[in-house]
């Protein structure tokens, strides 16, 4: 068996692939090559859905018996934003002053690299075998709409009779220090596109046109006039944020035909996608009355909130973190969402990864020392899980 690559070298190889969703740019090839070299069987299904680009995914497994511990994650990344503001090339994977820079360093190519390095070292140490099974569920569609990613990969695996006992997802769960936070739940995500319909015309003859902009303002105001809820037993309050308002009108003397707004809601377990959709439609109907014509397109990506009750697996991961960092991780459901909302339907899932302070930002970076320590934590998890 070849000597397993280090987590840092894997993280650098991954960051050098500009895999902004839905591009793969070779990222899953890096994962496949590392796992195949260690004897994992690797498959790379590509999933399709009308209206969305095809997206590649990866499933790998070593061993057929139970228990099966799954590592999950994604290799797609969010766009770099203002590229000239970066201190280092966002796809250069530069190490400077002990920090690894690049898009995905924290979210979550760094985490994927640590899982790979830990699993490969574990397998090498045991002469190429596992007392049970280790699997990897890695997608190229997490940061995007997430319709051709983990949700389909799980269905694909289920059809092939694959069974999993526990899953560790490597999203960047720590706000500032490695070891301070495990995520045991996430809110769901619902994206909405609202279009108000009008009739184009001359600004000086408004009676011959219908301006959609006041209607859009009325509807957007109605959507956020009342809080959705006050939080639930395990989750923060649900929250709606507008992400863009577009009219796209370049003329100063033309009333536009349509006006659009996009919003995203992070919702807790007081709601399902359906009940939340019904509440949004109720608010819009009331505000629109007979005078505003609109369309609402909801893109739920099938994602209710998830919550995993603290159990022995949470205890095992907490012990590994404590042994490596000296910190007692808080069990949290805060922050963004993750593919654990899909994985929770097939096995208990929790999340622990790198420090997420710079995720989605310019100059995304993680400490090289944290990459080494996270690899050691995952190694301890493997040792304890299969002991
Ligand atoms: N756009 C997708 C979900 C995208 C998932 C993304 N997650 C993270 O960035 C991790 C954040 C964290 O660790 O707090 C997100 O939350 O936007 C969808 O909405 O379906
Ligand atoms: Zn992520
Ligand atoms: Zn992200």
Features:
alpha+beta, Alpha-Beta Plaits, 2 domains, elongated, about 375 residues, four-stranded antiparallel sheet, Aminopeptidase, binds zinc ion
Summarize the structure.
The protein is α+β, with helices and mostly antiparallel strands and 387 residues long. The chain contains 9 helices and 20 strands. The strands form 6 sheets. Strands 1, 2, 3, 4, 7, 8 and 19 form a 7-stranded mixed beta sheet that branches. A 4-stranded antiparallel beta sheet has the order 13-15-11-16. Strands 5-6-20 form a 3-stranded antiparallel beta sheet.
Fold and architecture overview:
This protein has 387 residues and is α+β, with helices and mostly antiparallel strands. It has 2 domains: 7-186 and 305-385, Zn peptidases (Aminopeptidase); 188-299, Alpha-Beta Plaits (2-Layer Sandwich). The protein has 9 helices and 20 strands. It has helices at residues 7-15, 27-37, 109-125, 150-159, 212-224, 273-288, 312-325, 340-343, 368-385, and strands at 41-43, 46-49, 52-62, 68-74, 95-96, 99-101, 133-139, 166-169, 181-183, 185-186, 188-197, 201-202, 239-246, 254-255, 258-267, 293-299, 306-307, 330-332, 349-351, 365-367. The strands form 6 sheets. Strands 1, 2, 3, 4, 7, 8 and 19 form a 7-stranded mixed beta sheet that branches. A 4-stranded antiparallel beta sheet has the order 13-15-11-16. Strands 5-6-20 form a 3-stranded antiparallel beta sheet. The mean pLDDT is 96. One zinc ion (ZN) binds next to loops.
């Amino acid at each position: 068996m070849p000597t397993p690559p280090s987590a840092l070298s894997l993280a650098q190889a991954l960051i050098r692939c500009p895999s902004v969703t839905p591009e793969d740019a070779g990222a899953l090839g890096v994962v496949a090559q590392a796992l195949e070299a260690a004897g994992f069987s690797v498959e790379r299904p590509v999933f399709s859905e009308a209206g969305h680009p095809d997206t590649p995914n990866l499933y790998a497994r070593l061993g057929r018996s139970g228990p099966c511990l799954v590592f999950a994650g994604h290799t797609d990344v969010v766009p770099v934003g203002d590229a000239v503001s970066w201190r280092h090339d966002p796809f250069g994977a530069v190490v400077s002053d002990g920090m690894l820079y690049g898009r995905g360093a924290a979210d979550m190519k760094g985490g994927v690299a640590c899982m790979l390095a830990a699993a490969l070292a574990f397998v090498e140490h045991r002469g190429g075998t596992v007392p049970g099974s280790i699997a990897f569920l890695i997608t190229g569609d997490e940061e995007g709409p997430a319709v051709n990613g983990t949700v389909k990969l799980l269905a694909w695996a289920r059809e092939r009779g694959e069974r999993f006992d526990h899953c560790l997802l490597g999203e960047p769960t720590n706000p500032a220090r490695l070891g301070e936070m495990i995520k045991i739940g996430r809110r769901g995500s619902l994206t909405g596109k609202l279009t108000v319909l009008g009739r184009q015309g001359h600004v000086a003859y408004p009676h011959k046109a219908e301006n959609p902009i006041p209607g859009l303002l009325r509807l957007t105001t109605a959507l956020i006039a009342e809080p959705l809820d006050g939080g639930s037993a395990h989750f923060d309050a649900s929250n709606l944020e507008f992400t863009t308002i577009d009219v796209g009108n370049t003329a100063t003397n033309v009333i536009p035909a349509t006006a659009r707004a996009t919003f995203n809601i992070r919702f807790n377990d007081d709601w399902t996608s359906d009940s939340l959709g019904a509440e949004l439609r109720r608010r819009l109907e009331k505000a629109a009355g007979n005078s505003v014509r609109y369309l609402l397109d909801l893109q739920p990506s099938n994602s209710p909130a998830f919550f995993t009750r603290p159990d022995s697996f949470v205890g095992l991961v907490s012990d590994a973190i404590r042994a490596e960092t000296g910190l007692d991780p808080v069990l949290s459901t805060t922050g963004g969402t993750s593919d654990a909302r899909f994985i929770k339907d097939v096995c208990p899932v929790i999340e622990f990864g790198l420090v997420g302070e710079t995720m989605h930002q310019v100059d995304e970076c993680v400490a090289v020392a944290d990459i080494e320590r996270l690899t050691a934590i995952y190694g301890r998890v493997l040792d304890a899980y299969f002991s």
